[in-house]
Write a structure and sequence with these properties.
GO molecular function, one term (chain B): ATP binding
Shape of chain A: globular
InterPro entries (chain B): AAA+_ATPase (IPR003593), ABC_Ni/Peptide_Import (IPR050388), ABC_transporter-like_ATP-bd (IPR003439), ABC_transporter-like_CS (IPR017871), Oligopep_ABC_C (IPR013563), P-loop_NTPase (IPR027417)
Helix content of chain B: 25-40%
Strand content of chain A: 15-25%
Structural class of chain A: alpha/beta
Strand order of the largest sheet of chain B: 6-7-8-3-9-10-12-11
Keywords (chain B): ATP-binding, Cell membrane, Membrane, Nucleotide-binding, Transport
Number of helices of chain A: 10
Shape of chain B: globular
Largest interface: A-B, 46 and 48 residues
Pfam families (chain B): ABC_tran (PF00005), oligo_HPY (PF08352)
Oligomer: heterodimer
Subcellular location (chain B): Cell inner membrane
Order of helices and strands of chain B: EEEHEEHEHHHHHEHEHEEHHHEE
Chain lengths: 351, 330
């Protein structure tokens, strides 16, 4: 058996956010004494970085751990292991008190705009709360001015600040959620399925708004989504997760035109395209995602992989660089190119 | 005669404040035997209410259904509850969006598939179980003779949706209504279920009314498409025509608002087309065109006179004053 040791991903010292080998295992308690009988390996060693002003998308199916990554970064629960470095400072081991000023720099927008706004607070209080919390306003006039500016930023009328959340539609509420995320003047916004619950026409409005804000404010986005078409539309780079691991991470064009991991390839081929009669080769994966309580040995994808061979069942593949900037965790790339069905590279951009 | 003829369907709901919500307001369409018709639109356009109305699953009151729904020539709205029960799950059956909540958690899946068979076809318990195993094989569930004794919580989301399809198809229905059948599923599982539906359509020959908001799913499965907006049909066409040359500004807006896979390759990933504004409230009777408040090409005529559904190209109808007649080949 060949034992090529893949070179590890390089460190990215200048990046805005750097995540190294992040793990989050949830204990399973059972029995009368509540003893731990096992773990859910929700996130099991994930590394990536985000540059300033860049969008990185985390994609994958339900239960792959993409939302857990977002929540661990926000320290909504403590990570089990690994490092999170924001702008050169480690934040994964800070105490809650020390973390507070850092929280300002990372905003978050959740999926459901109906449950993420307190129905008993007016819009102006919803927006003023984070500004007060972080002590950003000098006086109450400044506070009002900041709230009004936030409304302008998300293209809502200023006079809507006295209204209640229930008076707004889903898309407008999501704008309020974005305004709240922007209140602390963050460098990074984590969008956890932020447009998934919205209707098609409203979704387009919010996607355009996020792209505009990114340009205006130089924001970095961590865009967690399962909608690959939206991801392709708005991202710079993509990380594909499967069962708690990143299986491929690559710039947008490379990933969508020449995926280097069989799971990415299958995922892309499964997306229905709004084009009747489009001739496409569809790879329909057999079976379901295995349980993250007891992930398969070797490559976690080998139980559903159409190309799996012996080595996949025993050796776990590491991320290796296949093209500049494109990393994939697959043993196929150790084979000679003629035997590798994923060897082709992205077509050159016709200019 | 078409298998299903819906004529001027109006499903209204009385609201607690004394108003009326016109969820479906004068909808007409036909479904031929063996055909797949998709109804698309955004939340609140009335597509699910339409499907519930066909099966008379709308509680009355507060709901009120008017118009005609003719199935095999019989108006379903004239039938007694008893006669209606003989049709539900037998000649017309339905697949719901949420496979998690639509199955009974305390009955084995064999019992749930067998229920309709015993009720409608008078099978004995053992015959029903044998048929249930057959149905599970049909929908591609491995080890069906073991699975038939299991309960819904033992199955994954995709498996549960397969069970839902098995239940719906158990009595060989002539019409299958699928209300967002793949919306709650992951893409790889969605691909499996869409493949299954296409395959079963050829084998079973049932007509399908597919309710969805996903234009990708429509393009893959449907033969004819009805676009609904604010309780009305705004456009209807064969699937190729609709995607190639949409006539109604709303349909054009919808198609422009969806990013396509591969957009990064041809360098077309520009801004998405937005449809400004919001769906109008269904509580007032709308004057003029339903889309007037959001339409980029709106004129005074649109605000005052409701456009009629006209044939703008062969087998392609749209309700717009300014839609060009006759298709322009792309």
């Amino acid at each position: 058996m060949s034992t090529t040791i893949a070179k590890p991903m390089p460190r990215h010292a200048g990046a805005l956010l750097e995540v190294n080998d992040l793990k989050k295992h949830f204990p399973i308690k059972a029995g009368f004494f509540g003893g731990t009988t096992g773990h859910v390996y929700a996130v099991d060693g994930v590394s990536f970085h985000i540059e300033k002003g860049e969008t990185l998308s985390l994609v994958g199916e339900s239960g792959c751990g993409k939302s857990t990554v977002g929540k661990a970064l926000l320290r909504l629960f403590p990570p089990t292991a690994g490092q999170v470095v924001l702008d050169g400072q480690r934040i994964d081991d800070l105490s809650q008190g020390k973390l507070r000023p850092i929280r300002r720099r990372v905003g978050v927008v959740f999926q459901d705009p109906f449950s993420s706004l307190n129905p008993r607070m007016r819009v102006k209080d919803l927006l003023a709360e984070p500004i007060r919390n972080y002590g950003l306003a000098k006086d109450s006039a400044d506070l009002d001015e900041r709230v009004a500016k936030l409304m302008d930023t998300v293209r809502l009328p200023r006079d809507a600040v006295n209204r209640w959340p229930h008076e707004f539609s889903g898309g407008q509420r999501q704008r309020i959620c974005i305004a709240r995320a922007l209140a602390g003047e963050p460098d990074l916004i984590i969008c956890d399925e932020a447009v998934s619950a919205l209707d098609v026409s409203v979704k387009a409005q919010i996607v355009n708004l996020l792209q505009d804000l990114q340009k205006e404010l130089g924001l970095a986005l961590l865009f967690i989504s399962h909608d690959l078409a939206i991801v392709e539309h708005m991202t710079h780079r993509v990380a594909v997760m499967y069962l708690g691991k990143i299986v491929e991470i690559a710039p947008r064009r490379e990933l969508f035109s020449a995926p280097k991991h069989p799971y990415t390839e299958a995922l892309l081929s499964a997306v229905p395209v709004p084009e009747p009669g489009a001739a496409r080769k569809r790879i329909v994966l057999k079976g379901d995602v295995p349980s993250p309580i007891n992930p398969p040995k070797g490559c976690r994808f080998h139980t559903r992989c159409p190309y799996a061979f012996d080595r996949c069942r025993t050796d776990e593949p590491q991320l290796q660089q296949t093209e500049p900037g494109q990393w994939a965790a697959c043993h196929l790339h150790d084979l000679p190119a003629v035997k590798n069905p994923l060897a082709r590279s992205a077509p050159k951009l016709a200019s | 005669m078409a298998l299903l003829e819906v004529e001027n369907l109006q499903t209204h709901f009385r609201t607690p404040d004394g108003g009326v919500n016109r969820a479906v307001d004068g909808l007409s369409f036909n479904v031929e035997a063996g055909q797949t018709v998709a109804i698309v639109g955004e939340s609140g356009c009335g597509k699910s209410v339409t499907s519930m109305s066909i099966l008379r699953l709308i509680p009355e009151p507060p709901g009120q259904i008017a118009g005609q729904i003719r199935f095999n020539g019989k108006n379903l709205l004239d039938l007694s509850d008893r006669e209606m029960r003989a049709i539900r799950g037998n000649e017309i059956s339905m697949i719901f969006q949420e496979p998690m909540t639509s199955l009974n958690p305390v009955l084995s899946i064999g019992k749930q598939i067998g229920e309709a068979l015993r009720l409608h076809q008078g099978l004995s318990r053992s015959q029903a179980e044998a048929k249930a195993v057959e149905m599970l094989t049909l929908v591609g569930i491995p080890a069906p003779d073991k699975r038939v004794k299991e309960y819904p919580h033992q199955l994954s989301g995709g498996m549960r949706q397969r069970v839902m399809i098995a239940i719906a198809l158990a009595c060989n229905p002539k019409l299958l209504i699928a209300d967002e059948p793949t919306t709650a599923l992951d893409v790889t599982i969605q691909a499996q279920i869409l493949d299954l539906m296409r395959d079963l359509k050829h084998r079973v020959g049932a007509a399908i009314v597919l309710i969805t908001h996903d234009l990708g799913v429509v393009a893959e499965v449907a033969e004819r498409v009805i676009v609904m907006y604010a309780g009305r049909k705004v456009e209807e066409a064969r699937v190729e025509d609709l995607f190639r040359a949409p006539k109604h500004p709303y349909t054009q807006g919808l198609l422009g608002a969806v990013p396509k896979l591969g957009s990064s390759l041809d360098g077309t990933s520009e801004r998405l087309a937005e449809i400004p504004g919001l769906v109008p409230s269904l509580k007032q009777k709308l004057q003029g065109c339903v889309f007037a408040s959001r339409c980029p090409q709106v004129t005074e005529l649109c605000r005052t006179a409701a456009p009629a559904l006209e044939e703008k190209a062969p087998a392609h109808i749209a309700a717009c004053h300014y839609a060009v007649k006759e298709a322009v080949p792309a």
